[in-house]
Amino acid sequence: MKPLNSIIFNELYSNLKEQESFSSIKYLCSEGIETIGYGKTKSSIRKEQLTWLGVSSWDDIVEVSEAQADRLLREDIEYFHTACENKFDWFRYQQLSVKYVVINICFNIGVSGFSKFENTIELIKKRANHEASVEMLDSKWFEDVKGRALRLSKIMACGHFDVPSIGLCREEYRIFRKRVK
């Protein structure tokens, strides 16, 4: 298995830090889920992470330092990369921007959550990225994280990381209009 490309890693690292924001103590996110660090939740913490944090369960975590949260985030990016390569046979052959989008979504809703995006996945397999970008928006996930979803949809459609933060590109808009008619 190849290590995660440094371009994707760096983009994910900086983007997830910005999207998730740091909290040294647990708080309830917009979905009512207890969260700490950079978007770390009870369902996403792994046993080895609890061990190096020096606790035996999620409930034992009272506070994390920024350095600990940073390590959790770095490990999670690598973890989701590996999980995507193991779960999706098509993943390793995709362009960098598609890998970035898939890992970012999996960080947010898990690999099992992304697995439910059956139509999006089929379009990605066919390299129909514009159509996949629109399909991504037809989900509860989009309703929950609108801004994040729009940005990731644009990255999927345009094939590069530096996309404007608002508006659909021309091809996305054409496909979107066609679907809503």
Task: Tell me the number of structural domains.
Answer: 2
Q: How many β strands by DSSP?
A: 3
Order of helical and strand elements? HEEEHHHHHHHH
Biggest sheet, open or closed, and with what strands and sense?
3 strands, antiparallel
Instruction: Classify the beta-strand content into a percent band.
Output: 5-15%
The CATH architecture classification of the largest domain is: Orthogonal Bundle
Oligomer: single chain
Which regions are unreliable across 5 or more consecutive residues at pLDDT < 50? none
Provide tags for this entry.
181 residues; mainly alpha; Lysozyme; three-stranded antiparallel beta sheet; 3 strands
Explain what the structure shows.
The chain has 181 residues and is mainly alpha-helical. The mean pLDDT is 88. It has 2 domains: 1-89, Lysozyme, CATH 1.10.530; 117-181, no CATH class. A hairpin with a 2-residue loop joins strand 2 (34-37) and strand 3 (40-41). It has 9 helices and 3 strands; from the N terminus they run H-E-E-E-H-H-H-H-H-H-H-H.
Gist?
By secondary structure, this protein is mainly alpha-helical. The protein has 9 helices and 3 strands, in the order αβββαααααααα.
What's the layout of helices and strands?
Elements: H1 6-20, E1 23-28, E2 34-37, E3 40-41, H2 47-53, H3 66-87, H4 96-115, H5 118-125, H6 129-136, H7 140-144, H8 146-158, H9 170-180
Antiparallel strand pairs: 1-2, 2-3
Helix pairs in contact: 1-3, 1-4, 3-4, 4-8, 5-6, 6-8, 6-9
